[in-house]
Amino acid sequence: MRNREPVCMHAPDLPALICGGIEPARAAEIRRHAEACPSCAASLADYGKVFGLLQSARLDAPDGRFLQEVMAGIAEGRPSERRSLAVSLGAAAAACFLALILSAAAFDSGSSQGAKPAFPVPSGPTDYSREDETVGRALDWLASAQDPSGCWKPAMHGGRDQYAPGVTGLVLLAYFGSERNPFEGPHAGTVTRGLRYLKSMTGHDGGFQPKGPALVYNQALAAMSLTAASRFPESGVDASDAMRPLKFLASLQSESGGFGEDSLTSQPNSSASTWAVLALSGSGRTGWTEGAESARKAIAWMKGMFDDEGRLGYRVSGDYPFGRAALTAAGAMHLAGVERARGHGAGGGASVMDKVMADLAGKEAVPDFCQWVFAVSALEAAGIDRFRAASVSLKTRIASMQVKHGPQSGSWDPSDRWAAAGGRIYSTAMAALALETALLRGKL
Known about the structure:
Shape: globular
Order of helices and strands: HHHHHHHHHHHHHHHHH
CATH class of the largest domain: Mainly Alpha
Number of strands: 0
């Protein structure tokens, strides 16, 4: 008789956890355990890899006996055997094998015929032929990181949960920025759950709960995602769902035109103002035209934050507590967008764009996902060949940094100065947005 590897008591629940068939409180408990259990972490990675393959499978619900037999087999099997099996069967066979397991896990053994799992396994091919495969892998990883409640919890991946509404909005923006209709692709359920979470966290005044130090960031990013969703009838989000959060965001604008981080009493800064502008610029889609005026007022305030070298300050001109690169790229993005809207190409933003180019090429350049998103948007919006070439080079660099192997495959390491807030979820969603160039396409 062979000696068996020890099996963790949580192992039988892992397949059901992957497909969302576990009650939320229990799922959170298992995920916390897996963070400290190498065996469960490795098993989750195994199931997650093949779970992507099963998204092309369409299977009828198995009966309760099959569920019991398969789950018993999972509990008895060794992790090394599962990994060897997945490899040896090949992609197609592994997909069918795991599809049966995960479909079974989503059904209660007493379910009646025709019952559906709480979180249906996505159907249809995971075909990224129409979009960059790197983005496709990122979206797959983000789907695997979603909490059963529908949100994305930064604390599970190195961030802080006070940013959960904003990080959830950021992830949804990555799905809306891709080339496919998010409600027709393999992650339709993921997107729908995320939107339901945001709607449930919207107060009567349009503010997202909880209201705290990250208020403007959470409000802007979540409102942007609801605005993007309102374009799709199947989203369950209508114009009013997005309009109320946008109006609440505008109410936080200072008399000077800038936005602080949490309320009218906090000093305006160009970082919070950047995200507020991006959200309010799309308010016309909800039928609320005053939001665009708030965005123009904020941009006018930011123009006063540039120094003589063409760099954007944080609270005042010349103020760079978090470095100059990300803010300068944000300023260039706004200026390029304004000039392009006027039909002037790069126009007055050309000198600022040169600073963006210098920052990207500098010896001191370090990973900065905010800088990269803003820089790509600015460089491509400028409409000049040398700037477009720089954007292509930057996106190639970003793609090369994607994790290729292991349980975090498809994600980006949370390696910049802002990662302490959003963790790996933030870094992966931002990298996807940069590669999609979603901010300038007018999709968001």
